Amino acid sequence: MILSAHSDHIGVSKNSVLKDKINNGAMDNASGVSTLLEIAHEFHHAKEKPKRSVIFAFVTGEEKGLLGSEYYATYPTVPIDNIVANVNLDMPILTYRTNEIIAFGATHSSLEDTVSSTLLKNEMKLIEDPMPEQAIFVRSDQYSFVKQGVPAVFLVPSLATEVKDALAVSPQTFLAKHYHMPSDDLNLPIDYEWAAQFVEINYAIARDLANAPERPAWNSDSFFSTLGKD
């Protein structure tokens, strides 16, 4: 299986009135890259190795049209038929706490059952895509693998959470004021304890998927089940 996160952002802002015009990308997607690095650390130091091998892919060019993941999915380092699943991390906003996780694309494959079960074991719950009209499942790096026939999910904390902590930044505020802006930087009130918990949740999901006895499969009624086939 392959775990992915994109390491690029959008460069220098031409429209910002701030002195600092660099789009730092702390949440988009340094938070995803950091989470993936920590997951790799957990796998490396685990007493029991997973039954399936795990590839960690840090791709670039996501903001330019999924270019890095598209190239890798087209020219993978192992046969594409041997890649059983992709779990992608893109912009986990770690400035607020929630016990709800979105797995974009989960309803299209058997990955949903494993993700949901793992979350419940960790006192979390899987919730439905709150914005299906935005077609987010086809807008990040997992879609490069989906087009090659690989079942995938894209994991983020709930974007519909009501934040009561006055020091936190809600997902709504982040998306309105910091997304693709220079202010997406380390001055945001990043909750590092929650960030560590988010790592553990993602590691548990990846570990359970890597050890699952059955290969993940698309649901027969999903449009995506038709992709990647000659």
Automatic annotation (TrEMBL):
Pfam families: Peptidase_M28
BP GO annotations: proteolysis
Gene3D superfamilies assigned: Zn peptidases
Superkingdom to which the source organism belongs: Bacteria
Domain Peptidase M28 span(s) in chain numbering: 1-201
GO MF entry, a single one: metalloexopeptidase activity
Name of the featured protein: Peptidase M28 domain-containing protein
Organism in which the protein naturally occurs: Alteromonas alba
